[in-house]
Design goal:
The protein is 80% helix and 0% strand. It contains 16 helices and no strands.
């Protein structure tokens, strides 16, 4: 297998999994139209997928810390697709929730192990991890288009067709899994070796920074379409264009982050990106006219440049618990960010959408503040080693 082939396959496979995270929200209008669900009932479907998936990801992270399970990649990919494929076949609300939850479990099982495997396949390259992360953002962005294309044929009865990306993604995982299993057999080891000591304090700060980043991005992605349409007037296409720009910027930012980290260290890149995001979000909220599209693009890139870097930073802060770190940075913190969206909506109902979006300017600023106190893991270990050597040297007994 060529050097870059595994990370390419994993990136496309990542897209085939994360498309199902986007499918849940994209299917909601069809559930409402065909089954007469209320908004509250329909939102329960989204909640079943997102919360279960995000809370379960750290659990799978703990499991992958104990045992390397590359076989989990194709299995979890299939679970994610089968759950969504079955969700439209039954008119029973509990069964619909169960199938969507099954998909959420598949997505949850995929991410911690895939992040560990991708780090190995990328051979520690930040650019490679950037491509892997970009795959997920592309999949999420393509979900509404895929759902619309399938539903136009026959409504919810056609949801079984949505299993196709899962079949493709599982097939792409298999060659990578085979290579990794062969390596494990040759090494005689079932888990990836850990090196270094855990820096729990830095990992907690990193997780908080990721939470505030998530609040900003999810808050904007939820309301940007409506907000831009209010600001500029016009048809629904005006708002849809803003959402498309937001998603496209996220894919560019994911790749750009890996490239920048090859030139500067990850913490420095993340700090500068969050400062750009502060200005960009402020521009989205307050700059008038079509320039809002430029600021939407800058916001998306600024918030996504640190995305893959934060995953690898988490793994380096917790080198003995790489799966746990991946599960938290990819899962739990994202769900907490999503829980803030109803608060933004409630504030918009009570005041205005601009007033509700204004606090989002503070979110990347808070992320920047946490990153100001974060060390780059490799640099921090070198400094500690130098300090220990200096202390041992000063404590040595001088010859008389």
């Amino acid at each position: 297998m060529r050097r870059n082939t595994p990370i390419v396959l994993l990136s496309v496979g990542h897209a085939c999994v994360d498309v199902y995270q986007g499918c849940v929200a994209a299917l909601v209008p069809y559930f409402i139209a065909e089954r007469a669900y209320s908004l509250a009932v329909a939102s329960g479907i989204v909640l079943a997928a997102s919360l279960l998936s995000s809370v379960a990801q750290p659990v799978f992270g703990v499991l992958t810390d104990r045992w390397a399970m590359p076989w989990l990649l194709p299995v979890s990919t299939l679970l994610g697709g089968v759950g969504i494929a079955l969700s439209g076949l039954s008119g029973s609300y509990p069964l619909t929730l169960a199938f969507v939850a099954l998909s959420g479990i598949g997505v949850a099982a995929y991410h911690p192990e895939s992040a560990r495997v991708a780090r190995i396949a990328a051979r520690g390259s930040h650019r490679g991890m950037g491509w892997f992360s970009m795959g997920g953002t592309v999949g999420f962005a393509l979900a509404p288009l895929m759902v619309a294309a399938v539903m136009s044929g026959g409504g919810l009865s056609w949801t079984p067709l949505l299993v196709l990306p899962a079949l493709a993604g599982a097939a792409m995982c298999l060659p990578v899994v085979r290579v990794l299993l062969e390596r494990q057999g040759a090494d005689g080891s079932g888990t990836a070796p850990s090196a270094g000591s855990d820096d729990v304090a830095s990992f907690v700060k990193l997780s908080l920074a990721v939470v505030f980043r998530s609040i900003a991005f999810i808050g904007l992605s939820t309301f940007i379409s409506l907000y831009v349409r209010q600001r500029l007037g016009g048809s629904t296409a005006v708002g849809t264009a803003a959402l498309t720009v937001l998603y496209l910027g996220s894919t560019v930012g994911s790749v750009l982050g890996g490239s920048l980290a090859s030139r500067w260290d990850r913490v420095t890149v993340a700090r500068r990106s969050y400062l750009v995001a502060v200005v960009a979000v402020a521009g989205v909220v307050w700059v008038p006219g079509p320039a809002v599209y430029l600021f939407v693009a800058l916001t998306s890139a600024g918030l996504y440049v640190p995305f893959s870097l934060q995953v690898t930073l988490g793994q380096d802060y917790l080198p003995s618990r790489v799966g746990t770190a991946s599960g938290i940075t990819l899962g739990l913190t994202v769900s907490i960010g999503g829980l803030a969206s109803p608060a933004v909506g409630a504030l918009a109902d009570a005041t205005s959408l601009r007033t509700a979006l204004a606090p989002l300017v503070l979110m990347p600023l808070l992320s920047w503040l946490f990153f100001r106190t974060l060390p780059e893991p490799g640099i921090a270990r070198a400094e500690l080693a130098d300090g220990a050597a200096a202390r041992s040297g000063s404590g040595a007994v001088k010859p008389g």
